[in-house]
Amino acid sequence: MITDHALPQSRFIPIRKNDLFKLLLADDSNNLNSTLFKQYYQLLDNRLHHDFHLLTSNIKDSYATYDPDTSTLDFSENHDSHLFFNKFETLLDKANYELINSNDLANALEKSSLFKIKLHVNLEDFSDKFIYYRGSSIREESVSSFMGLYKRKIRFINYDRVILCLKYSDKYDSDTIPLNDNLSGNIFIKLFRNVPKADLEMLFPNTRIGMRLQDKLLIGIPALVSGGVVLTTKVGTSLILIGSLIGFWLGISNQPVEINTTSIMVLFAGLAALGGYLWKQFNSFKNRKLKFTEALTRNLYFKNLDNNAGVFHRLADEAEEEECKEALLAFYFLSNSNTPMSTQELDQAIEQWLYKKSQLKLNFDIQDALDKLLNMQLIEITDD
After folding, report:
1. Cα separation of 34 and 169, whole Å?
2. More confident residue, 167 or 3
């Protein structure tokens, strides 16, 4: 049973910065000068916008060499992908994304998919792979079983945002990629929304779709039954004729087999019936697999938010909002207090206020907020 205790507290503040400013301004305990507070908010917003514009430009320069969508010539002298990854991880951290480590990823890939599909991912195709998420919640959905005759409710962990960053190795399996391009050396970045933890494998570009045991039984059992009928009614005579011929040729039987027009017609009719039956079962398997592929494609279409360099702009905007909200909250509670506050007192006051407004238990990044105020020389710290 999945409970809310299984979720780590998020650093993400699910309130727009303009809405947060209005909530603080209208707060019952607010004793600040609204004009001065508004000026501070505008100056803070402008300062962070300038800083993140520089950061985004820097990351774009580092990514240019590895961008699979680029339409410009590459004059970069530095081809160290680790330099790009370090800068990208800094941006992700500022946007309050959390890393899904290799153990968590392995556990997620082992779990049964909620999508009713058996998925396989070969992680060896990638020399570097990073998955980050932001925001998680417990969701509940009804799942049909036994061909829709029975429904049961399941609870699962859902990620609000997921970012997948992949660099192909030199020896990737080209059969999983429907392109003729050479993908080695490129770095692919994908941003998705509302992804169940158990379905992370569907985000990978080299995912192979298989069939679950129940799907194989759904096709296999009727195939065996109808196959038995075909063998006994339409192919039986042909099998007896073929067996008699083989037995006579091998010397097992001394009884000669008479081959005439009728026996040849029976033989070909039986083989045609057998071939038609096998082709029908093969098509049944292919059509069911195609149905799964179509459902997976449709699902990913609505979950995909952005790709490659476009992710930077969205991330930079989100990171700028998060940094602004953190600095705004810390400045407000310090300025609105009649006495100095310790780091712990400030952290608790902000988290309690956020819970009151959002009904969510958040892990406010107090140290990051204080570092920004210190950098702007707006606060002093003495013995915590």
Report:
1. 56
2. 167
- Beta-strand ranges (E) seen in 148-258 are 150-168, 187-196, 208-210
Q: Mean pLDDT lowest for which of 65-74, 257-266, 289-298, 333-342?
A: 257-266
Task: Provide the 3-class DSSP secondary structure of residue 47.
Answer: helix
User: CB–CB of 364/347 below 8 Å?
Assistant: yes
Amino acid 255: pLDDT: 60
Distance, first Cα to last Cα, the chain:
41
Provide the b/e sequence for 92-130 (b: ≥16 CB within 10 Å).
Answer: bbbbbbbebeeeebeebbeeebbbebbbebeeebbeeeb
- Measured on CA atoms in the order 231, 233, 238, 243, is the torsion positive or negative? positive
Q: What does the pLDDT look like over 124-143, one tens digit per residue?
A: 888 888 999 998 888 877 76
Please tell me what DSSP assigns to residue 157: E
Q: Of 339, 360, 330, 325, which Cα lies nearest the Cα of 352?
A: 360
CA distance 225 to 236: 15
> 150: burial class by Cβ within 10 Å (0-12, 13-18, 19+)?
exposed
